[in-house]
Amino acid sequence: MKHFGYLAPEEREALFHRAPREFTAASPARTLATALGATLYSPATRPRLADDIVRQAGRGVVSMVLCLEDSIDDADVPGAEENLVRQFADLAGRDADASLPLLFIRVRTPRQIPDLTRRLGRAGRLLTGFVLPKFTEERGVPFLEALLAAEHGCGRRLFAMPVLESPELLHLETRTETLAGIARTVDKYRDRVLALRLGVTDFCSAYGLRRAPDMTAYDVQLVASVIADVVNVLGRADGTGFTVTGPVWEYFRQHERMFKPQLRRSPFAGSAEALRTALIEHDIDGLLREIELDRANGLQGKTCIHPSHVAPVHALSVVSHEEFGDAEDILRPGRDGGGVLRSAYTNKMNEVKPHRAWAERIMLRAEVFGVAREDVGFVDLLAAGVRSA
Question: Does position 256 have pLDDT exceeding 90, yes or no?
Answer without folding.
Answer: no
